[in-house]
Amino acid sequence: RNLSRRIPIRGRGYTLAYQTCGPLACNMFALVCDTTNEAAIIDPSSYTDVEFQNMQKHLEDKDVKHIFLTHGHCDHVAGLPKVVNIWPDARLYLHDLEQENYQSATKAGQEFGIIINETLPEPTDSIQDGDYLTVGESIQLRVVHTPGHSPGHVGFVDDRPNISISSSSHDSNNNGAVIIGGDLLFRGTVGSATFLNSNFNDLMASVRRLYEEFDEESIVLSGHTTPTYLKTEAQQPVVSSSLKKSNKWFYEAKQKHGWN
Fold it and tell me: How far apart are CA 3 and CA 129, in angstroms?
């Protein structure tokens, strides 16, 4: 899928596009501020030369200043060395609890047929739950810690009110947030909790957190599969189970992770 394919959001002052890349079909996202042309790349998973060239063409004449990582798994960082070679001044953001996964990504990639030949750059910025990341004048993303698939897994969420209410169509996403959610919630399933530092109970709590904090009309842009909406996935078995768990269970999860 070409990166020029845009996500169905309107009235937020920026464009958001994605491309599915590599052997594990990982989604890479590009956000561009309409006013300043400042841009951010989320999860640079481009693996082949063609995939990387598509991204480069899409961001031609754009000011790429930020690279945001939802987590440190190999499929989400495979294109990172090439990205920093083209945009060496871009800052790289990663949660502290993802250092183990990030440092072992090159070795882990070999098990999945993902060969990363160049050294991964050191992150320049540590991100934590509740941080806000600004790109240009119109993009502000809230960092939402969503562990389970991995310890320092995060989502990047635009939860501001839509500046345009001219359309009432579902695809305009006027009521909900824009959730770039990594490998937490997919169309039809949830992320794996079978890695060495995964935790299924944390994954369920993170899923519950999305439904506690964001409108059901929120669009979910995940690390794999196509865009979906919170309300569309509410009947998934794991999602449904997490929503049925007690408030006490969720309160304890919030306390464990320091969620406000």
Answer: 28
